[in-house]
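PT: before anyone asks, these are the final sequences, not the draft ones from last week. 234 residues across everything. Please model them as a single complex and drop the result in this thread when it's through.
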Amino acid sequence: MTTPDMIAQPDLEAWVWSHIGGLAGVTSFAYAAEQLGAPGWLYAHHIQVDARAARKQAARDLAEQVRRAMLALAVTPWPDGVVCYAQATEGPFWLPDPDGHPRYTARYEIRVHPPRTGAIQAAPAASPPRRKAASRGA
Amino acid sequence: MADSTFTVTNPHAPRLAAAPGIRDLAHQLAAEAAANTPVETGRMAGSYQVVQGADPATSLVTNPTPYARFVEYGTRYDHPQAPLGRALAKARAQAR
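LR: through. Structure below.
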């Protein structure tokens, strides 16, 4: 069985994490991805980033560092894809954990498409072809 | 071309005209968020409200359940469920 060619999607979450994962106290979570326009080309990823620190001011400074890194993605070259839009949709705002631990939270929308060259790749076969069962007896 | 003079009789008219559509959209968002909300007792899923904002063309989707923020945005121990965030993401994609 063959499957149709498809456009390989770049791993945006990994790209984002490679930029902010080095900041101690930062976690990210992609909670939605929506297709925009032509199928298989442009996707909007929605990512929440939390910045935690021992003190409120430190958490706020960390969230600002994250905000700058996230918005810079739109002008950062990336061999696996193209970030064509990066904006904060919420925050950063103060949202301490239930135990009072300082946290600033922000959500970002990042639109991404694969690179224009070499985007079409054959998808691997979903399962090996079935062999017809041999007939028994005559 | 002759000069024309216009007098704006109601500066809020454009926002008043847009208000019903925006209110409908807010109700759709609230319904979608309720459908996305994880249900144990149903308290949070049943508590989404649409509230009139400061001007006619602003509607707010709110949820007064005390733990709603922690379901929406997660905690140190639980990842965010983002019921309203997912509804908003879908609406933003459809609005393009």
